[in-house]
Amino acid sequence: MFALRVTALIAATMTTGLTAGVFGLYQHTVMTGLGRTDDRTFVGGFQALDRAIINPWFMFSFLGALAFTIAAAFLNPGRQLLPWILAALALYAIVFVITMAVNVPMNDALKAAGDPDSIADLAQVRRAFDEARWTAWNLVRTLATTAAFGCLCWALVMRGQFR
Q1: Number of neighbouring beta carbons within 10 Å of residue 62
Q2: Where in the chain are the domains?
Q3: What pTM did the predictor assign?
Q4: Cβ atoms of residues 93 and 140 within 8 Å
Q5: CA distance 84 to 67
Q6: What pLDDT was estimated at residue 159?
Q7: pLDDT, tens digit, 9 for 90 and up, residues 46-70
Q8: What number of CA atoms fall less than 13 Å from residue 129's CA on the CB side?
Q9: Residue 129 and residue 9: Cα distance in Å, rounded?
Q10: Do residues 60 and 15 lie in contact, with contact meaning Cβ atoms separated by under 8 Å?
């Protein structure tokens, strides 16, 4: 049982950290770089990135962070670890809701606009996407997943002290 408890906690920590890294990279690099491009490049580039991110690597991290953190909470019920794991779970649940309620619908709307070569008013499509809103919510996701990662790291430290 010890190995299963530790494995769940390590898996939760790693997948949460990977997801925090993805959101952080979008925050400080991808959106900053795309923001400096013309409308055609922004729309086409974002559409391509959004299609590419739906892959087994990302989905394992994004969904795994939630699943493994839930598993870690059930498998590590001790009062020393559980508050940290539950804090991470609450933070990640917020991230999951934001992703599904804000970022994914915005991404889907931009993809639904069609091929940039067939869009008559690319500037309007870009304005309708609202980069500032997307980036603001992504910042919340970045900070929350990073905080969740920190909570899980601390739970691992605590786990090492209280076997």
Answers
A1: 22
A2: 2-162
A3: 0.94
A4: no
A5: 16
A6: 85
A7: 999 999 999 999 999 999 999 999 9
A8: 27
A9: 37
A10: yes
